Each structure stands twice: as structure tokens, then as C-alpha cells.
Amino acid sequence: MADNAGRGNRRGRPGYDLGRLLDVSVRVFNERGYEGTSMEVLAQRLGITKSAIYYHVSGKDELLRLSVNRALDALFAVVEEEAATTGRAIDRLEHVVRRSIEVLVAELPFVTLLLRVRGNTRVERQALARRREFDLVVSELVEQAEAEGSIRPDVDPALTTRLLFGMVNSIIEWYKPSRGMRAEQIADAVTKIAFDGLRTGARNPA
């Protein structure tokens, strides 16, 4: 295993370690689609030989696996944070939503790729299974918040989860880092819109 850590420093075009290889590969996958991207296309975009890519990874599937796992690992790290595991369920839920937005913005190409997988390969099916695990964690938080009386009980928890993360996930379709909008601004807007409607007693007066 120690041998792998230094591989990117010994071969290939200078500057193309595994991290840089993933950055470029994810960009191409998002542009062309995973199935529409060949190793030859990746090599051309990177300006290196296919053998130089194979020095880092076993193939295109491994590039996909490493890329979607980067996004998934970041999301699962959110639900393990102290603010996501202690306190009232409604506050933990809001923390998870807010931090998920921050992860999405920080790892935008990787989360975009994750949200576009369709289950056509084993790697994609594994990614979808992990996404469902994450959704289940959030759904359980919604159920706990409903049980403690913090959110309105007239919306199904599974539907609430889908609506919350439908709003979060839609950010990949319009967010452009070059426009200068910070993750905190987006998170403030989303949580205000979503949780003002979810919290009991938060409805606007007639």
C-alpha cells in the first residue's frame, strides 16, 4: 500500500497525481457522460498516455468509484458531526441540510457526477445504494423531529426528505462558482425557505 502513495510522483505528466487525474476525469464525465467517455478521450484531455492513467487506476470504473465515493464520504461525514448527532432533531436536521449544501458547493463536480449516476454499472449501483443509506439517515431525523413536535405532522417524512434534498440537489443545475455566491448564502436561503415551512408554529399569519 505504501507503494501506491508515491506513484503519482514518479510517472506521467508532471503535476498529474491521482487527485488531479480525478479532477479532470470528473469534469469530462460530467461533460460527455460516463458511458460516452473512453480512456482514449481522458488521455487526450489530460495530455498523457493511457498507460500513464493505468499507472494510477485499474480503469474507468475505478475513476468513477473514487469520484463518487469522494462525494459520498463527504456527505456521510456530515451526519457524523457533533451538531448532527446531539441536540433536538430539528436542529440536527437543519445542520445536515446546511452542511450538505456546503459539501455540494465545495465538491460541486463530484456531487454533480454522483447525482447523475443511473445504476447502469456495478459501481453506479453501489453509489445509489449508499445514497439511499444517506436518505434513510435524513428520513429518520425527520421522523424524530416530527415525534418531538418540532415539525408539522401533516407531511410524510419520506416526502419531506425528498423535497428537502430535491431543493438541495437542484443547486448543481444553476450554481456557478464564478458568480461569487458563497455556500453560506445559499445555505441560509434554503434553510430559511425550507424550515420556516416545516417548523411548527412557523406559518405566516393570515
Q: Domains counted in the coordinates: how many?
A: 2
What is the string of helix and strand elements?
A: HHHHHHHHHHHH
Q: Report the total helices.
A: 12
- CATH homologous superfamily placement of the largest domain: Tetracycline Repressor, domain 2
What is the strand tally? Answer: 0
Helix percent reads 55-70%
Report Rg. Answer: 20 Å
Global morphology: elongated
CATH architecture of the largest domain: Orthogonal Bundle
Could you give the distance between the termini?
Answer: 64 Å
The main pleated sheet reads as: none
Query: What structural category do the secondary elements indicate?
Result: mainly alpha
CATH topology of the largest domain: Tetracycline Repressor, domain 2
**Residue-averaged pLDDT:** 88
Low-confidence stretches: 1-15, 202-206
Query: Into which percentage range does the β-strand content fall?
Result: under 5%
CATH level 1 class label of the largest domain: Mainly Alpha
Domain HTH tetR-type: 15-75
Keywords: DNA-binding, Transcription, Transcription regulation
DNA-binding region: 38-57
Protein name: TetR/AcrR family transcriptional regulator
